[in-house]
Amino acid sequence: MRTRCRLVLFFLTVGACGLGAQSPPSSPPTNTCLDCHLIFEDDEHLGVPAQLFAGDIHAARGLTCAACHGGDPREEDSDKSMDPAKGFIGVPKRADIPRLCAHCHSDAVFMRSYNPRLRTDQLAQYGTSVHGQRLRRGDTRVAVCSDCHGIHDIRPASATLSRVHPLRLPQTCAGCHSDREHMKGYEIPTDQWDEYRASVHYRTLAGGDLAAPTCATCHGNHGAAPPGVASVERVCGTCHVFQEQLFDQSPHKQPWDMMELASCLTCHGNHGIQPTGDFLVGTGEEAFCINCHLEGDGGWETAEKIHAALVGLDSALADAAGLLDQAERAGMDVGEARLVQANARESLIKARVDVHAFNAARVEETVESGLELAAEAHQAGEAALDELAFRRKGLGLSLLAIAFVVFSLWLLIRHIERGKEEIIYKHEQ
Amino acid sequence: MTSALEQLRVWLEERFGHGLGDAIRKKQVPRHRHSLWYYLGGMTLFLFLIQVVTGILLLLYYRPSPGEAFESVQFIMTKVQFGWLIRGLHAWAANLLILVAMLHMFSAFFLKAYRKPRELTWITGCLLFFIFLGFGFSGYLLPWNELAFFATKVGTEMMAAVPFIGEWLLTVFRGGEEVTGATLTRFFGFHVAVFPALTTLVLGIHLFLVQQLGMSVPPSVERAHRQSGQPLRAHPFFPGFLLRDLIGWYIALGILAALAALDPWELGVKADPFVPTPAGIKPEWYFLFLFQTLKVIPARLLWIEGEQLAVMLFGVVALLWVLVPFLDRNPEGRSGRVFTAVGAVAVAYIIGMTVWAW
Prior knowledge:
A: mainly alpha, Butyryl-CoA Dehydrogenase, subunit A, domain 3, B: two-stranded antiparallel ribbon, two-stranded antiparallel sheet
C-alpha cells in the first residue's frame, strides 16, 4: 500500500513537472544528479550508473535521471533534488518497474513525439506473458523490463549493443533461462540455449541473417509465453507459410490434433532444430516416418515414394550441374543452361515443401516438372561439351593446316631463292 | 595458268600503267642482323585486318543499347554459327594488335627509324598507336558487362582531371555526367566509325611513306658496312619478303585460333549501374602502367592535385614521344645515345608498373 502511494505521488509529481507530456527538449536539460554521481566514479551503485547513462537512448533523447527516479534535477542541493516531496523514489522496486516504464511507453501521445513507430502496448502484452502473470502473483524473480533492456544503458533494439538486438537476444534470455539456480522451482528445462546454439536457426543468425528466428520470434517478446500444442503450427507458419498450409490439408492434421501432438515439433523438434534433408522423409534409418509407420501400411508406401522422387530429382540435378561445371571450367558459356538448372532447383525446393502435404502424387507431380528441366540442363551441358570437343578437333586440324602452309611457304622461299645471286640493297628515294 | 596470270598482268598494266608493277618488282628490303623487326609492321597490319573482318561480322548481330548489348554478344557466342570464334578472334587479336604495335613502335625507336627523312612515318605510326588504344578503350565497353562498365567509369573519370576542359571532355565522352546508354552508343560510334575513318587516313599516309622512303637501315648497320666497305644485302620485296611475312601471319593466325578455342574470352555478368563498384576493378593490361601511376602519385603535390598532375604528365610525355624525330638532333651521336637510354628507362617503367598493377 505504501509503495503504491509513493508511486502515485511520483507519477503526480512527474506529471506536474510536465516531463511526461513535454516535447523532446531542443537543448540538454539540467541534470544535477550526474554532477554528484559521477564523482563516485567506479562505485557500482552510485558512480557506474551515472557513467553508463551517457550511452542510454533516454539520455540521448534529453530525459534525465528524474524521469525514472523522480526528484528535481534542477536543484543543486541534494536534499532538495532528492526530496521525496518532489517525487523522488530512489531505486524503483522490481515489481514496480513495468508500470514505471509504461508510464511513458504506454502513452501513445507522449511516445509519438519521440518515435511514432514504437508500439505502446508493451505493458498490456507483458500482462499476458508468463513473466507478467507470475509478477502479478508476487514472484519478483521473473523478468521485468530492465532484465532484458538493461537499466542505465538502454539502447534501441536495432542497436547492436542492445541486449535485445537479434544477435544478443538469445544470450539475454539465456541469462536467466540457462541459470539452473535461478530457474529452480519453475520445472522447465534449462538447456534451451545449448540446443538453440546447435540449431540451424542460430547458425543462420550467426551467419549475419538478422531475420533468422530468435527466442522472441517464436515466444513473443513482451508477451513471452511457450506456444501451446495448438499454436506451434501457427508460430512456425509465420515464416514457413506454405509448410503450414500444406500440413493443414494433410492426412496427419486431424489424428495429430486428436493425439495432441505438436505438429511441426513432432518431426523437427523445437530449440535444437536441425537442417532438413531428403533422408528425413522415407523409410531409412534416420527418417521420421518410421517412428509411427510400419512396413506395409499406406504411410510407409507414401514415404517411400516421396523419398524416391526427391532423391531422383536431386541426383538428376547433380548430374546436370556436374556437366555444366565441367563445360564452364573449359570456358564454355552455359549461362542459359544455368537458368534452366536454377528453375529445376526451384522445383526441387517446391517438392521438398510439398512433402508437408504427405501426398506422394503431389510431390511426384512437382518432381516431374523438375526432372524435365534437369534433363534440359543436362542436354545443354552435353551439347556444350560436344561443342568443346568439336572446337578442339577443329583447332587441331586448323593448326595442322597452318603448319603445312607455313612449311610449304618455307620450301617455296628456298626454291625461289636457291641459286640466285645475292641482291645488293639499293633504294631509290 | 602462267598464261592466265600473264594476261591479267597485261590487262592491269593497260589500265594502270607500268608504275605499280615496276614498283613491286623493284622494291627491296634491306637484309641485316636487325631485319627481323621489319616483320612487326606487317604483322600489325595483318592483325588490324583481322579486326576489320571480325568486327564487320560482329556488327551483323551486335546491338548497341544497354538493354540489348550484353544479350546480343551472348547470342553471338552461343547461338550464331562460329560466333564464339569470331568474337574470340576479335578480342584476342585486339590485345595482340596492341602488343605487336607497341613492339613495332619501340623497335623503330631503338633502331632510330624516325631519323630524317622518316619523321612523318614515325608521327603517323604514333598516331596509329594512339588510335589503336582508343579502339581498345571504346571496344572494351561494348559487351556492356560489369567489368567493362566499371573500368570505363574509372577510366573516363581520368578525363575530368584534364586542365580547363576536363569536365567538358568527360561529358562529351560519356554523353552525360555518368556512364549510361548514351556512353555506350557514343563509344560504339567511335569504335565503328570515327576510329576506322581516322585509321584509314593515317594508315594510308603511313603505308605510302613506308613505300616511298623504304625501310630504314639502323645507323649501326650503316656504319659497319661503311667501315668494312661491304655492300648491304637485300631481299626482293616480292616474293621473298612478302612470303616470309606470310609465314608470320599464318603463325599469328594459329596462335589466335588456339587462344580463341582454348581460352575463350569471358563475357562475365551484365552491367548493373546500381550496384557498387566491385573491388579490384582494373583496366586492360595496356593501360595498367597509367593506372598504377595514378595510384601511387600523391593526392596533392604543392599546389596541384596529384591526378591532374599525372594526366598533364601523360599528355606531355605523349607529345614529346610524337616529336622525338625533331628533338633527337643527332640520332647517330650523343643525343641519340641519350634518347636510347631514356627509351630504355621508359620500357622498364612500363613493364615494372604493369607487373606491379597486375
